[in-house]
Sequence to fold (314 residues):
Amino acid sequence: MKVKIQKFLDTASRKRLITASCWMGLVGLGLMGWSLFDQGWIPVMAAMSVGQGIGTLSFALYLLVVIIELRQVEIRHSYRARQRERGDH
Amino acid sequence: MHVSPLSWIALSAGIIAAVIMILYLIYRPPLDWKTRGLLFMGIGVLPNVVAFVGNVEGLRATEHQAFCASCHTMDMWIEDANDIESASLAAIHSRNAKFGNSSCYVCHKDYGMFGYVVTKIGGMGHVYEFLSEWMRYDDEEVLSKIHIAQPFKNDNCMQCHTTTGSIWSDVADHNGLLGDLRTGETSCVSAGCHGYAHPFSKPGEETPSHAEALSAAQAPSPEGT
Fold:
């Protein structure tokens, strides 16, 4: 399982994830927006359950992209830190 | 349809978020810091504003009579409550401008410490029952098969009619039954007292006389009772 997750994080397309996140965000927003104008039980319940669930999932995908990017960041030490490592003062 | 100022703010936030996402989907710009920041607003911050306002407005909407009326199973109850000719307790109370628009909620909610949550959980039970069974009922089945889950609590009446006011205490029956009424042993809405709040749903059982109901309707506001 851990290997699968790692492989996914290494190979997943960030653009595809963001695209999926946007589509889901639009659906979630639509459901939540509907409940602001029609306050029958169907729109209100849909907004508070399905709408917010899809919206949360959409934001989770965005955060996944952030995690993927952070994993790929190459941390370069500053010039001073490298100097210290070499013992130059 | 009433749209509150808060809803307009949420709608503006929602439109901006939707525009950001749609523009991303159309142009697919590279994921640089500017795009990431905009997407963070469009996918994270602004939809949260919509969700928050949606929750506030949605929960507020669940207190309104119109929300209860959005299920067909409640049609007869709402019709009676809003009938200006009706002398039922529900109709008399619904005519009170102070809470008439929310009369279902005000009378049926739980007034305990966690009353709001308990009431909402009860409401979820209604939604489950409606989706699983009640939605297929016609009026006849609604009347015969759907009943209040627990006997109506006197505590709910006593939120307004405190049992301490002089007008209330002047009624001999109230004084005689004070202990029983406060503990709930005798129900305010029983056949021998004020009758059922929705008498049409209990055909053949005793209901208050029209004169009694009318005099109750003309009585002063509950603060004195």
Q: What stands out?
A: Chain A touches chain B at residues 14-15, 18-19, 21-23, 25-26, 28-29, 32-33, 35-42, 44-45, 47-48, 51-52, 55, 58-59, 62, 65-66, 69 (CB under 8 Å). Chain A has one domain: 2-86. The CA atoms of residues 61 and 76 of chain A lie 27 Å apart.
